[in-house]
From TrEMBL:
The gene is coaD. GO terms for biological process: coenzyme A biosynthetic process. This is Phosphopantetheine adenylyltransferase. Residues 5-133 form the Cytidyltransferase-like domain. It comes from Corynebacterium tapiri. Pathway: Cofactor biosynthesis; coenzyme A biosynthesis; CoA from (R)-pantothenate: step 4/5.
Amino acid sequence: MTIAVCPGSFDPVTNGHLDVFTRAARQFDRVIVLVTGNPAKKTGLFTVEERMELIREVTSDIANIEVDHWSGLLVDYTTAHQVSAIVKGLRSSLDYDYELPMAQMNRRLSGVDTLFLMTDEKFGYVSSSLLKEVAKYGGDVAGLVPPAVKAAMEAKLQ
Ligand code: PNS
């Protein structure tokens, strides 16, 4: 049984994330989307429960995707759950510079490898932070987040 974990803040989940989850689900028996604490991001638009619920909703048609949360070291979760690999999307060299030390640290700590999927070109510029800023000032994020996420963002930002 191969198990992948896709960790992240997902505040909120975007179509770029969803594309990575979907592609990972074709390569692994089980994919766990893990809403994980990032010490650099103190507050969020959505609570962890809300983020998980949105991810559940937008991945409900993919049988081998499940959703969980974790507030400790990522490698403690991957070791405890016999995770085969961490899977993340890579949009640009900025992501590469951010991700490389984490991937190397996680491998040093536990031996787990991180596999990167190149982001679909449609979503190369999409990030949760940018979408929150656009939505906050009334910009249209349709097509960049699933409709349920767009509705939830509008409700929060009203
Ligand atoms: O979506 P993000 O915020 O860029 O995801 C970063 C995240 C949550 C994957 C990273 O901060 C993380 O793995 N946090 C868990 C704590 C941990 O293990 N830190 C050491 C990483 S080497």
